[in-house]
Specification:
The chain has 316 residues and is of the alpha+beta class. Helices cover 47% and strands 12% of the residues. The chain has a 6-stranded mixed sheet with strand order 3-2-8-7-5-6. Strands 1-4 form a two-stranded antiparallel sheet.
């Protein structure tokens, strides 16, 4: 299949823009009539909404730093900011980096300029040459202005992004595309160039394995995967949450365990959030899916279940 061969060539060519490769993949997704592949490609090209569950490769950690001004015109620059000083709902500003922009934004910035700092969206800042940052909102800076160092006021703060983050993101996307294309080409080896001769279930399985699930595959088929992506859970609707998790393939005992985890977290939390017990339940979701014999990747089950829980708690 010529289009598949072109995708493989583009994926291994380091001089080809990743956006060009992904646009070819969009054509392939339409040719294959695979909604999940098309959805992934479109999100990589156009960016992820705030309500979307981000893939792991678009999440990383950084170090929060700040500029402090003190008495007699003194100052402290690039001072690390400990997360424990912040309220729980603000602590992600001290470490968590989420990359939601279209991949072109990171491809253009994978080599920091040396004449000024680059923010994640490409704007210039002169604090620390050669680095990328996510600036703190002005209101957040004011809120914690006097919380860190006695007699010194926080003037501005930012979350530094490791310089390896953007190249790693781009490389991961290209590798996912390459592995999927190579596996699909192997499948075509049995039927010539007749892409229609490859079963929809087999193609779906390759998409889940290479694009979404990595090595964490519970079963070889993903025929129910397209159904779970359309489910929405209203805030506080326990029955809708249960139904969504059951469609996802979570066993009844797994749902009961989650109910107990949510109740325990609610008893100690001051505001709705994913508590420690609930997070622990999500971490062990593989066994809950396996118990039900579901045909879905564990990583995908975790992402979908997290989305449902955030909707249920009114956090998305």
């Amino acid at each position: 299949m010529q289009l598949l061969d072109e995708i493989i060539e583009l994926a291994v060519d380091g001089n080809t823009q990743t956006t060009t490769l992904l646009r070819k993949c969009l054509l392939l997704a339409r040719r294959l009539k695979n909604a999940r592949l098309r959805e992934w490609v479109e999100k990589e090209l156009n960016g992820y909404e705030s309500s979307d569950e981000l893939p792991d490769y678009r999440r990383t950690t950084g170090v929060a730093k700040g500029l402090f001004l003190g008495p007699f015109n003194s100052s402290i620059s690039d001072q690390p900011l400990p997360a424990h000083v912040l309220r729980k709902e603000h602590r992600h500003w001290a470490s968590e980096i989420t990359l939601r922009q279209p991949i072109v934004a990171y491809e253009r910035n994978d080599q920091p300029k040396k004449d000024g700092e680059q923010t994640a969206n490409g704007s210039q800042d002169q604090r620390a040459p050669g680095k990328y940052v996510i600036p703190w909102p002005a209101g957040l800076v004011v809120m914690y202005q006097a919380k860190f160092i006695e007699d010194y006021a926080l003037n501005r703060a930012w979350l530094e992004i490791p310089t390896s983050t953007f190249p790693a993101l781009i490389d991961t996307v290209r590798n996912k595309v390459l592995m999927f294309a190579l596996d699909l080409k192997d499948d075509l080896g049995d039927v010539g160039d007749d892409i229609d001769a490859v079963s929809r279930e087999k193609i779906d399985s390759q998409v889940v394995y290479n694009i979404y699930g990595g090595t964490n595959i519970v079963a070889n088929s993903a025929q129910n995967f397209t159904q779970v992506g359309t489910v929405t859970v209203n805030e506080g609707d326990a029955e809708a949450l249960r139904s969504a998790l059951r469609k996802l393939g979570i066993s009844e005992s797994g749902v009961s365990e989650l109910k107990a985890a949510l109740a325990e977290d609610e008893s100690v939390a001051s505001a709705p959030s994913l508590g420690q017990r609930t997070k622990a339940w999500l971490t062990g979701i593989g066994s809950k899916v396996a118990e039900a014999g579901a045909n879905i990747a564990v990583d995908t089950a975790k992402a979908e279940a997290t989305k449902y829980l955030l909707q249920y708690l009114g956090l998305s």
